[in-house]
Amino acid sequence: MHIHILGICGTFMGGVAALAREAGHKVTGCDAGVYPPMSDQLRALGIELIEGFSADQMSLKPDMYVIGNVVSRARLPDGTPKFPLMEAILDAGAPYTSGPQWLAEHVLQGRHVLAVAGTHGKTTTTSMLAWILEHAGLQPGFLVGGVPLNFGVSARLGGGAAVRSAQVKEEPAQRAGDTERNAQPPHLPLFVIEADEYDTAFFDKRSKFVHYRPRTAVLNNLEFDHADIFDNLAAIERQFHHLVRTVPANGRVVVNGLEESLTRVLHQGCWSEVRSFGSAVSDFVAEGDASDFAVLQGVREVARVTWGLSGVHNQLNALAAIAAAEHVGVPPAVAAEALGQFQNVKRRMEVRGSVRSITVVDDFAHHPTAIRTTVDGLRKQLDQATPDGAARQRILAVFEPRSNTMKLGAMKAQLPWSLENADLAFCHAAGLGWDAAEALAPMGSRAQVAHSIDDLLTQVLAHAREGDTLLCMSNGGFGNVHQRLLDALAA
């Protein structure tokens, strides 16, 4: 089959392209401003990329056009279509489908799907779960909205058949205790997928994740987000319940016991086994510091996680991954052993370099809650590493409100709260429809606003000093601010 993908350079659609190519399909694609890193990965796979959405791509005559949700029926100010190729596809009556639908029909069918949903932590938790299953010898396929460093790729098909490793088979009873009777030994090939609640395509406004039909579903957390497509939190909760409806009776729903929103989702109806994590009365509880903690089931310690990650959010992500892995036969002790070797994901607290004892860190945080948990986790990590009597290491938060939700200003009032533990904050405010300086006014002189990357660099460099950590947070390229900071510091 020859598929032509519209919007191929997004992390999800690029992953679909890589999976299709690995499965033996001919894959071509197009996007506006064909851009790395996905463009480099796809070209390395031999996938032809075309710049733009011109109608002359109809001459490729693929068997199916796969449409990314970047594509719409929008028109430019002069009245011409923004996506002429889509208009030509519709006019010709050519076959087309969405990325999630194509994935469901051609990759996920016949597999035990483990789907990780949530407002925050999807990419990290999906990567953790895939690595746990890999460590246990189960050879999972996966599609992640980032690049897990343990694998070096964002997507793969995985083993052709379910495989159980010796360590999973030998000691499940003594490691997992009575909960082992609830585990689902894998009888189907496994596939781990980051399950996004964003809409599927311009012609299918359901959330992407309803296409995946998981047997194991992780509901990591749930807050209001995506203000461009959801009116309120209740609308997102409804979509999460649509996901719950697709989990079979012998499946498992892994849910964050700390989230009232998820409690409301389950109260709408649940027909599967439920395993909770996070709260004091959950099935899976963490006891201890986020970098070294025991995993409890009831009052009994079943595993211990000692790793290089920090922050309560990552501790919760780990519990979710452990609970999901147990459902396919991996004892918590084996999962914890894997997490001890987990290397995180690119752009998740990724140290980009250090110059004159000033460290530049890159992170994907963009929602206020994610910004706060990232800053708080770094604050705790730095404080623990600071010798008694030494000066406190400063955090300079460098960020841009780039997501559609943040651009609309739906959560601007939460920004001072999210940056509470940063010593200084520098906001790149280009393209916003609201006043960032006004929103950050409660921070007083601790916050500055710039309307260009050049001005932002000037502000940060004027305040950076030896021992500082420059924490750059954005869900986009951020004008390559990380490298530009390093280059300027070196100069």
What's the domain count?
A: 3
CATH topology of the largest domain: UDP-N-acetylmuramoyl-L-alanine:D-glutamate ligase
The CA-CA distance between the termini, in Å, is 52 Å
Helix content: 25-40%
| Name of the CATH first level of the largest domain | Alpha Beta
Question: Uncertain segments of ≥5 residues (pLDDT<50)?
Answer: 161-183
Strand order of the largest sheet: 8-7-9-6-12-13-14
Summarize the structure.
With 491 residues, the chain is an alpha/beta fold.
What key phrases describe this protein's structure?
six-stranded mixed β-sheet, 3 domains, 32% helix, alpha/beta, Rossmann fold, UDP-N-acetylmuramoyl-L-alanine:D-glutamate ligase, Protein-Tyrosine Phosphatase, Chain A, 491 residues, seven-stranded mixed β-sheet
Structural commentary:
- The chain is α/β, with parallel strands linked by helices and 491 residues long.
- The chain has three domains: 2-98, NAD(P)-binding Rossmann-like Domain (Rossmann fold); 110-339, UDP-N-acetylmuramoyl-L-alanine:D-glutamate ligase; 350-490, Mur ligase, C-terminal domain (Protein-Tyrosine Phosphatase, Chain A).
- The chain has 17 helices and 23 strands.
- It has helices at residues 11-22, 38-44, 84-92, 99-108, 122-135, 166-170, 172-176, 233-245, 260-267, 312-327, 332-339, 368-385, 404-407, 415-418, 436-439, 453-463, 481-490; strands at residues 2-6, 26-31, 48-51, 64-67, 96-98, 112-117, 141-143, 155-156, 190-194, 199-201, 204-207, 216-219, 252-256, 273-277, 285-289, 292-297, 300-306, 350-355, 358-363, 395-399, 424-428, 447-450, 469-473.
- It has a seven-stranded mixed β-sheet with strand order 8-7-9-6-12-13-14, with helices on both faces.
- A hairpin with a 2-residue loop joins β10 (199-201) and β11 (204-207).
- The longest helix is centred in the C-terminal third of the chain and has 18 residues, at 368-385.
- The chain is globular and about 70 Å long.
- It starts with a strand and ends with a helix.
- 50% of the residues are buried.
